Amino acid sequence: MHAKHGRAYKVEPRAIAQVLVSSGCKEGKIGDLIQDIARIVGVDLDCAMSRRTVRRAVLEGLVASQVQLEVELNSDSTSHRKTEYQSHHIHMRVPTKNPDGSVRLSEDPRARFAGIKSAVNHSTATSKDAWLTVYEDITVALCMGET
């Protein structure tokens, strides 16, 4: 089986490398580990990932997760009588109860309203500060609920 498509590794070996690194495996050992796992399940891979390629796969996963987070956290702004307002929403999988009483995460993300804040302007810095305030408010609310 070919682990690469052209000169680039396919999605599956990169995903396996990301999982192995997040599980604590050393980057330098992952190429051989993927080879061994493939051999155990009866697949013969034509090449092994280098430590450098594993690092790139992990970095790629980080960038993808940051893009996904940007999609899941969104805000919209408007003004009313010369006052700027930002509305914040978070899209996430939420806990739902099964008929037997067990809890699982929803299959599809749900939109959750995170509040409206007044803003000085529509700048990126103002938007960042508003998100940090929303995060702080959520964190404080969670901490208060634990006591």
Number of strands: 7
Looking across the biggest beta sheet, what order are the strands in?
3-4-7
Low-pLDDT stretches: none
**What distance separates the N and C termini?**
55 Å
Oligomer: single chain
* Mean model confidence by pLDDT: 81
Protein name: Mutator family transposase
Helix-strand layout with pairing:
Blueprint: E1 4-5, E2 8-9, H1 11-22, H2 27-40, H3 51-72, E3 73-80, E4 83-92, E5 95-97, E6 103-105, E7 110-119, H4 124-146
Antiparallel strand pairs: 1-2, 3-4, 4-7, 5-6
Helix pairs in contact: 1-2, 1-3, 2-3
Q: Which key features would you list for this structure?
A:
alpha+beta, two-stranded antiparallel ribbon, 48% helix, 2 domains, elongated, 4 helices, single chain
Overview of this protein structure:
With 147 residues, this protein is an alpha+beta fold. The chain contains four helices and seven strands. Helix 2 crosses helix 3. It starts with a strand and ends with a helix. This is Mutator family transposase.
Give a quick summary of the entry:
This is Mutator family transposase. Helices cover 48% and strands 26% of the residues.
